[in-house]
Write a structure and sequence with these properties.
Length: 310
């Protein structure tokens, strides 16, 4: 079982338009809601992959109830903590003509100390049966900055590898716990570490320095169309799939997290796990839904995915 933790849940509300035109009235030709929040999206992908998983996190209000219905619709097993307030809505503007998407995310729920302690208790209970843990995203108001470090330390004590997909202060606080995988995208890396890497070579150089300085077992950075950069104990790699005409790229990074945890739990080598991860992320951009994908696309893209040592 792979355990996913969502520190700041969201409902993704997708608005499909032809093209964003500032200062004009734009009427979406389609609007639909999907599961949001990195941990929950990872569970969506794991369900597609046929991997047993458990999702834990916080939800609130009527938006939270809609989010739970969506999780149930996927058949995702969950153990959620209800708090006061309202689960945030992430408005995702999908420009069909330009094949790009943008996020508008409002503030969400607030987590009181007793709810955070409840999360830790449930987390500890599920660690006993977990093969991997995936946590990520921003943290909700009220959660301690050190929460990801605490989750990583608890996972290490239980001998369970953990992937943390985050950035900024919560990630920096977690680095001393040496998570099995630290993951982020290029922009998040630039927001967290100075200077902002202008090229892929700059990114690789800074990432290698970070991994060595912090003694990280593995550092994975998604680089959009340029591929997935991974620095691991087995070696450093750049994994890429052929360019895809994106329908909606929301959740592609969470697909990479899901596939990495899954394939590494099966004993795959890093190059093989990265092939599955990149193919899964690429398959997600072909669908309208956040983190949705189809195994037939993953398997087709798998044979086209390259893993190059760097």
């Amino acid at each position: 079982m792979i355990l996913t933790v969502t520190a700041n849940s969201a409902l993704d509300r997708l608005l499909f338009i032809d093209e964003f035109r500032p200062g004009t009235t734009m009427r979406p030709h389609k609007m639909v809601d999907y599961v949001g929040g990195k941990g929950f999206d990872t569970s969506v992908v794991l369900q597609t992959l046929g991997v047993k998983n458990k999702a834990i996190g916080f939800v609130a209000g009527s938006t939270g109830r809609e989010l739970v219905e969506l999780l149930d619709g996927y058949g995702i097993s969950h153990d959620l903590i209800w708090v006061d307030g309202e689960t945030r809505i992430a408005h995702i503007i999908v420009e069909t003509r330009r094949h790009r998407h943008s996020h508008l995310i409002a503030a969400g729920l607030s987590v009181p100390p007793q709810a955070y302690q409840a999360l830790l208790k449930r987390y500890q209970n599920y660690l006993d049966e977990a093969a991997w843990v995936v946590v990520g995203g921003s943290i909700a108001e009220g959660m301690p900055i050190s929460c990801y470090r605490q989750l990583a330390e608890m996972a290490r004590a239980a001998a369970v590898p953990i992937l943390i997909d985050s950035f900024g202060v919560p990630l920096l606080a977690a680095l001393p716990a040496a998570p099995a995988i630290v993951k982020m995208n290029w922009d998040e890396f630039g927001q967290t570490f100075d200077p902002y890497p202008a090229t892929l070579d700059d990114l690789a150089e800074q990432a290698q320095a970070l991994q060595k300085r912090e003694q990280l077992p593995a550092l994975v950075i998604t680089c959009g169309g340029q591929g997935v950069l991974a620095l691991t104990a087995e070696g450093s790699y750049l994994t890429a799939t052929p360019p895809q005409l994106a329908v909606n790229a929301s959740g592609a990074g969470d697909g990479i997290s899901a596939a990495l945890a899954w394939r590494l739990s099966l004993g795959d080598s890093w190059p093989e796990a990265l092939r599955w991860a990149a193919a899964t992320g690429a398959a997600i951009v072909l669908t309208e839904g956040t983190a949705e994908c189809y195994m037939v696309d993953i398997e087709r893209l798998l044979s086209q995915t390259t893993v190059q040592p760097i």
